[in-house]
From TrEMBL:
UniProt keyword annotations, A-Z: 2Fe-2S, Iron, Iron-sulfur, Metal-binding
CDD domains reported in the protein's UniProt record: Rieske
Domain Rieske: 3-99
Name listed for the protein in its UniProt record: Rieske (2Fe-2S) protein
Cofactors named for this entry: [2Fe-2S] cluster
Lineage: Bacteria, Pseudomonadati, Bacteroidota, Sphingobacteriia, Sphingobacteriales
PANTHER family named in the record: FERREDOXIN-RELATED, RIESKE DOMAIN-CONTAINING PROTEIN
Family designation: Belongs to the bacterial ring-hydroxylating dioxygenase ferredoxin component family.
Keyword Iron: yes
InterPro entries registered for this protein in UniProt: Rieske_2Fe-2S, Rieske_2Fe-2S_sf
Length: 111
């Protein structure tokens, strides 16, 4: 796992808010749901809606277009949706929020 600093402490969204950022060449949504920080892909796989216009409900991220829901823990869509979103590990450190990315075997070999 490779960790990248995403935000300073004062940039982390307040409870109930979603913020779009770019980290390691990927556009992500940083979500503060009930004081738990999550990082997800920024677009809904169903219709391409941008999650920054969505909201959280019962531990799920809700797409603003068709109201598809995705678990902030697992990334799985609600029953019957048959899709998922990418969830990235987050770590709050003394100097801010870090996001973890899996390293590909290629980059491990050739750095």
């Amino acid at each position: 796992m490779k960790w990248f600093k995403a935000l300073n402490n004062n940039q982390i969204p307040h409870a109930g808010n979603i913020k779009t950022i770019s980290v390691n060449g990927k556009q992500l949504c940083i979500i503060n749901n009930e004081d738990k920080i999550s990082a997800t892909q920024s677009h809904c796989p169903h219709a391409g809606g941008h999650f920054s216009g969505g909201w959280c409900k019962n531990g799920n991220l809700v797409c603003p277009i068709h109201r598809y829901e995705y678990s902030l823990e697992t990334g799985r869509g609600a029953e019957g949706q048959g899709d998922y979103i990418n969830i990235y590990p987050t770590e709050l450190r003394e100097d801010g929020l870090y996001i973890g990315f899996e390293e590909s075997w290629w980059s491990k070999l050739w750095g």
